[in-house]
């Protein structure tokens, strides 16, 4: 990669970070491309070279959020390992993502903007629905192996992840509370494991 390309990439990243900051502070409708350019330290022309419109810039923020949500490491089901041990890996990976400051910033922007204009997020939500999460796949495999009760795998996955988000996502996004300590993260994960396995594990 040449130096000019790296500079272009740095400017693009600066524009995206500036847009996130401005959308968070002022909302989508009030934020102008001029203000984003000023915050990023680039010319307005440079902003438009990367993003022809504010809508496209916002779409890129949603795309980055979608990419983070779906980039969880693959943890395939194993019939020779305890369920709790395997499920803990899934939940700890999810907990790490929920605690990432950049992810939380992206989520705040997306949620704030889509409350006022839900159609902006419909494309991202549709795309997210097309790709089944690794945890859903894992639950289905454990059911096929006769180790979990019959329940819709997507429902069960959303349910157990909701237990994490009630401590490690919504309070931070909606009320600006600090992220959980490592000890509290472990406590929340172990509690979620207790509840999930008590409900769905076949003895």
From TrEMBL:
Keyword Transcription found: yes
Keyword Transcription: yes
Keyword line: DNA-binding, Transcription, Transcription regulation
Superkingdom in the source lineage: Bacteria
InterPro entries with a match to the protein in the record: DNA-bd_HTH_TetR-type_CS, Homeodomain-like_sf, HTH-type_TetR-like_transc_reg, HTH_TetR, Tet_transcr_reg_TetR-rel_C_sf, TetR_C_Proteobacteria
Gene Ontology molecular function terms on file: DNA-binding transcription factor activity; transcription cis-regulatory region binding
Name listed for the protein in its UniProt record: DNA-binding transcriptional regulator, AcrR family
Native species: Pseudomonas moorei
